[in-house]
Amino acid sequence: MRKEEFVHLCRNWPVQGGYSLAGAVVPLVRTYLFGNHRRKLPVIWLEMNDSGDNNISFLNATSPYVGQVFTYMIDLLYSNPFMAAQGPDALQLLTNAAREYSGKFTLVVEGAVPTKADGLYTVIARTPERPLTAWEILRWLGPLAEYVLAVGTCASFGGPSAARPNLTGSRPIQDVLQRPVIRVSGCPVNSDWFVGTLAHLILYGMPEVDDQGRPTLFYRDTVHRHCQRRSYFGQKVFAEKLGDKECMYSVGCMGPATLADCPYRQWVDHVSWPVKANTPCIGCTNRDFPDGSTPFYQSLAQKRPKEGGRS
Ligand code: SF4
């Protein structure tokens, strides 16, 4: 498949009636790897300072299930959220993977990096001598990776982990690594965004990203542009309270200032998305989320006067 066709597929799969994007891309990747005698994408996956929401969202990939992403797309060499090994065995696996796949693995990171107290707020492993912090492990592995993928808004931009008053000194991973990072933001990430980006890496290499480092495959238009309540907005008919069926701009919706395809991709197999579930978009893919989205239920014109009403 040509790259342009793949991009079209990723963007339009939901509107063509497809469900989880994995259902379309796993067979493509499988055929490509088999036909070209290529190996699966080697991945080292680190979870740092976040709520674990991103790997839970990823586990929602269905039809096919996430097990098939592991079986046919990626070779998961180490993963502190998913692996069964613990303690010295897990650390040995990580050390071996970093050595054997140096320059060839993709580093997937969930969560921001705590940097206060020498990074002790997140410890990934312990040796007899000392704890190994997320901060130290990231600085070790970051330069060895072929690609670095930030999954979720904490890893991408700091997110809730770095929100005021940021007691742990949490930072986005690019601040620590000073190298290009693909930022698949969202709180949590949509499994389609993550699986589609992985597939792009396997099939065509680095995806096109916007000025925030997010793949334009999924973060091209505002939430507002495709929202099902957009006609209310056009007619200036606004909700008076949460639960009303009109446009929720008046009760804090960040859709006009947020890039994501949630209105038509939706979540958990196209079941729903925030506006459909009667809650405003809170701008979770944005660089300044959550501080730039608060107070959540105040209109965009009040919380960000220069951007109010942008479409
Ligand atoms: S402001 Fe929010 S609810 Fe209103 S149309 Fe835009 S995205 Fe939809």
Automatic annotation (TrEMBL):
BP GO terms, sorted: anaerobic respiration
Keyword hit for Chloroplast: no
Binding of [4Fe-4S] cluster 2, residues: H224, C227, C247, C253
Residues engaged in binding [4Fe-4S] cluster 1: C154, C187
Every Cytochrome-c3 hydrogenase C-terminal domain range: 219-297
Cofactor(s) of this protein: [3Fe-4S] cluster; [4Fe-4S] cluster
Residue sites binding [3Fe-4S] cluster per the record: C262, C281, C284
Record's keyword terms, sorted: 3Fe-4S, 4Fe-4S, Iron, Iron-sulfur, Metal-binding, Oxidoreductase, Signal
Domain NADH:ubiquinone oxidoreductase-like 20kDa subunit: 55-201
Localization: Cell envelope
Chief localisation class: other
Pfam families xref list: NiFe_hyd_SSU_C, Oxidored_q6
SUPFAM superfamilies linked to this entry: HydA/Nqo6-like (SSF56770)
InterPro entries noted in UniProt: Cytochrome-c3_hydrogenase_C, NADH_UbQ_OxRdtase-like_20kDa, NiFe-Hase_small_C_sf, NiFe_Hase_small_N_sf, NiFe_hydrogenase_ssu
Coiled coil spans: none
NCBIfam families linked to this entry: hydA
PANTHER family in the record: HYDROGENASE-2 SMALL CHAIN, NIFE / NIFESE HYDROGENASE SMALL SUBUNIT FAMILY MEMBER
Quaternary structure and interacting proteins, as annotated: Heterodimer of a large and a small subunit.
Family under the similarity heading: Belongs to the [NiFe]/[NiFeSe] hydrogenase small subunit family.
Protein name: Hydrogenase small subunit
Species this chain originates from: Heliobacterium mobile
The organism's taxonomic lineage, starting at the top: Bacteria, Bacillati, Bacillota, Clostridia, Eubacteriales
